[in-house]
Amino acid sequence: MTQDTYRLGVMDGDGIGPEIVPAAVRVVDAAAQELDIEWVPLPVGRTAIDEFGTPLPESTVEALSGVDGWLLGPHDNASYPEPHRSRLNPSGFLRKHFDLFANIRPARAFDGARALVPGTDLVIVRENTQGFYADRNTFAGAGEFMPTPDVAIAHAIFTRESVERIAHEAFRLARQRRRRVTVVHKANVLRLTSGLFLDVCRDVARQYPDVEVGDAHIDAMAAALVRRAPEFDVIVTENMFGDILSDLTAEIAGSLGIAPSVNVSATRGMAQATHGSAPDIAGRDVANPVAMILSAAMLLEWLGERHDDPAPARVAGTIRDAVADTIRGGVTTPDLGGSAGTRAFTDAVVVSIKHMT
Ligand code: ATP
Ligand code: MG
């Protein structure tokens, strides 16, 4: 079913957020001529603390329940006054509240973006709710505790249901790509937890006989990626391994500044750059908006799939081509060795879109 209007929340966040999130909105608007997108600006982060006394106002969460998806800028928890600093951060809360169980993090080398391993084009599908970050777990409560002041204990949780749904996500994605899935685990040591993850992924793999499946230990995988990243297509893994591996693959592909992601459930999508709020460069018009722009494109692609509407995916393709063109043409921000500012880079992407559409 195609939809007339897509309503999307937009939250600038902290640090470089107010620079890169509006850049992403501008680019989507330029490319989305055949789509009707209604942006719903919502407060989050430091500005929300000043105005509402909390980094994630109840009104924001309520409004998000009524939209198709949203762009979430980075937030800088460390800069919040107490008690906000020690509480669950806004994106952690939203992942949990809306059960955004799949964190999709592509790493693609762009020509002209100084990739450490040229030819890299892979996607990490990270389970977002369980594993070793058990604080995110829905039924375990706090995942860490200290029985005495000198002993700290953490637990990890894996359930068949949660591993199944992330595995299906990975295999479905592989069918749209090069049809290869690598399951990353540590089942030789963590026999029960990582063992369950591997076993369930292998069970799910039987339903996708057209997709080639392999597996690797997390340590061996880290080493393999540094030299052989282009051999990998879709990597499915648990929460903490995925968090760490995706920073590695972002750098292999060029820079944190170009690494996009979405967090999705069956019914909601949240676009979020992989990087943080970069307070060291905030407000200077030097931040790279690519990660945020490409995250917005991923959200459109997800929306199109969910609503069985080809238009958002076409818009996403236009955005990706325009970003790739701009970088190939030598217009880049300082993190990629160029001298374009955030605004100048965004202008160049918009011009490239106008040439295409
Ligand atoms: P967080 O705790 O929020 O994840 P972090 O400490 O991991 O934050 P980031 O904010 O991700 O740090 O920044 C890490 C480094 O990368 C910083 O030096 C920052 O300036 C740089 N950086 C991050 N994002 C960008 C970007 N979009 N453009 C340019 N540089 C960036
Ligand atoms: Mg970080």
Automatic annotation (TrEMBL):
Protein name from the UniProt record: 3-isopropylmalate dehydrogenase
Coiled-coil spans in chain: none
Highest taxon in the source lineage: Bacteria
Family: Belongs to the isocitrate and isopropylmalate dehydrogenases family.
Gene Ontology biological-process annotations: isocitrate metabolic process; tricarboxylic acid cycle
Domain called Isopropylmalate dehydrogenase-like: residue spans: 7-349
SUPFAM superfamilies hit by this protein: Isocitrate/Isopropylmalate dehydrogenase-like
GO molecular function: isocitrate dehydrogenase (NAD+) activity; magnesium ion binding; NAD binding
Keywords recorded for this protein, A-Z: Oxidoreductase
